[in-house]
Structures are given as structure tokens and as C-alpha cells.
Predict the structure.
Amino acid sequence: MTETTEPSSTPRSLSPRVRWAVPAVAAVAVAGAFVAPPLLASAGAEGLPDVTPAELISSVAAAQPVPMSGTLVYTARLGLPEIPFGEVGGADPIALLGGSSTLRVWTDGTERSRVSLLGSVSEYSVVRDGAEAWTYSSADEEVVHYALSAEDQARYDALAEQARAGTLPEVAGGLPTPDEVAGHVLAQAEQFSSVTLDAELTVAGRDAYQLVVTPKADAETLIARTVVAVDAETSTPLRVQVWSTQDADAPALEIGFTDVAFEAPDDAVLAFSAPADASVEDVEVPLPSAADLAQVPSAKDAQELPPGVTVTGTGWESVTEITGLDVANLVAGDPAALTSVPGAGKTFGSESAQDLIEEFAPTDENGQHGVPDLDTSALYDQLTTEVPEGRLLSSSLLSVLVTTDGRVLAGAVPADTLRGMA
């Protein structure tokens, strides 16, 4: 394990709540302190039946969830600055933005699952059991419990029973078949990419196909290609790699199984009980009413962008521009500033959910929002570069420009593309 020296502008320790509350604008630029080698996969897996890209996509779309357990290695090589957070060897979700992390996953293939981010001295887990969920940080001994109200739980149980009985209402127009889904996905991808199958291989001891999506040669994008390894028997994705045009030696993002078993995990693994010494935060999650569901926009309406959002270009070269954001207060961690995000409401679900948001960034004795123990404005300045147009965040897969007149431009394009559009 390699120790790192923290810069003087970065606090040496953060309060437990704050470590989970770094504003998204700043957190997106946090990187880990080490880089692991790429995941290894053996070539071969000869003798698999021949398939086309469309047939492989269709098999993934048609695949039913299956019981499974396994170990995943996640590695990010985004070229972001090294800024240490939390304890050395601790399990911190922020570490997923840089370096290598290990996760364990379990699922019964229906409504119960657990995902644990493992550190050498702690873990962070997310557990789901039907309509309930828990997050648990062993380092902080904190549990957050998400659940429905008694009334909503009764509605949820009734809907679940209808689903098991196959008596749910028909969807207007019907659902597309897996083949139709595959055809649509392939048609959309082939407008801007080539979609091919690479050599068959073995991942985590499983024979797998490889689907490769490569932007067309004239596309000005940071993405070189995306490679998905799909289990030949269950059609479960076993590994995903995203390669950058800036590095031909290793993928910029990679997540894949190092071991996997497609069998039901032990019931004790999927059950959750808060440790005796842990603090528990209860959050009531509202279940949408029938009236709410009736107001869900149609597929056509869902494609319409909210006011303040525009998209320039197509495919891999698309650049999204947002106006009207309260960037300064978003960086400062003020939850009220989230209402400046286009399409966002003024509250976040239930009252308890709103309270949890407020706790992430409480007010001080003067009534001003802020995150204690962390100067997020200074951190934002440290993680971005000053350019004539504003502040620039560059990574191997994404560029973000916050202009001096308050606009935000983002895309999987070179930084100079955004600067030219500003």
C-alpha cells in the first residue's frame, strides 16, 4: 500500500457525513492514488455457436435475471488529479472515480441483492430486499434505511402479487420483443459506429462473446471503442471496457468479473440487520400514485429536452449545454442550488428524504449553506483549469467547461471542441 501526502489546501480528515456528500461538480474530478493493471482474460473459447451482433444484443435483451454471486474489479484511468480522500485502505465510493476497486455482488435473481465495495480496512454495502434498501458504511458505523410508508407498502405488495399472477394491466401499444429492441439498438448504433464481434474469449472462467462498438473514423470524440464481453450461456455481461483515443495500452474504464457463480447465494448474505453499534437514519421513499404514473411523459415527450438544455452535434460528437445553473452554490454544496438544475423540482420525494439532503449540506450559525471541514470552492479550483472561457475539467473520456457567463458544456469530445463552442 502506498501512502500519499495531502496538499495543504485539502483537509486531512473529513467528517463521516461529509465524505459521502462531496458535491457532484467537484466529485466528478476526484481520482484515486494508484492505477491497477487491466483485467486479464484468456483468449480462446473456441467452438461457440456463430452469432451476429443483432442476435447477441437480442439475447441480452431477452435474458431473464439469474441468481449469481461474484467478485468484480473496477478500474478507472481517467487522467484526473490525485487527491486523497478518507482513510487509507478504506472503502469509499468516491474512489470509483480513479484507481482500482474491488466489489462483491450477490443476487437471488428477483428482488434481493447486495453489493459491497471492499477496502482493506472497511466496506460500504448497498442491500435491497423488495421495496426496502439499506446502505452501510463500516468505517462510520452508519446505516441509512429506505422504506415505503405502510400505505405505500400495501400498494406495492398488491402490485407485486398482480405481477406474479400475470394480471398487471397491458401496456398501451405493447412492449417491444427482444428482437425489436436489438434491431432498434443496432440501427441507432450503426448511424455513428461500426458494430462488430471480436474473438471469443474466457472471462472469469466463462466462455464469452465480445461485442465491439467503434465510433466512425471521422468522429471527433475521446471514445476509441467500447467492448462488452457477454456470457455465452446466460447472456449476462461479464466485462465492459471503454477505451480512450488518448491511450491505446489500457482501457480508461473497465469493470469485469474475476470470479462468478450462477447459483443462488446463501440467504444469510442477502439478509440485512443493522450492527448494534451503528446509527440508523430512516428515509421514507414515496411510491408514485396512479395519478403520478399517468403524468409520466410518453416516449416522444421524454425525448424533448427541458428548458435551458440544448444538444449540439450528433452521436459521439454530441455536446450538451446547460444554462441557468447556480454553479457557485452547487460547488459550495448548497442543496437548494439543485433546484437550478433543469427539470428538477424544489423538493426530493418525501420530507425525510429532503431532510437527508439538507443534512448532507447543513446551514451554519449564520444560516449559510456549506459543507463543514471542506472548502469545496478551493477544491473545485484545484480540480479544474482556468482557461480564457472559464474553468475546464479534462479527462480521458469526458470534457466539461464552466464558462464565465454561467453556462456548462459537456461531452465526450476534446476540450478544445468545447472551448471553440464557448
Q: What stands out?
A: The longest strand covers residues 193-203. Residues 150-165 form the longest helix (16 residues).
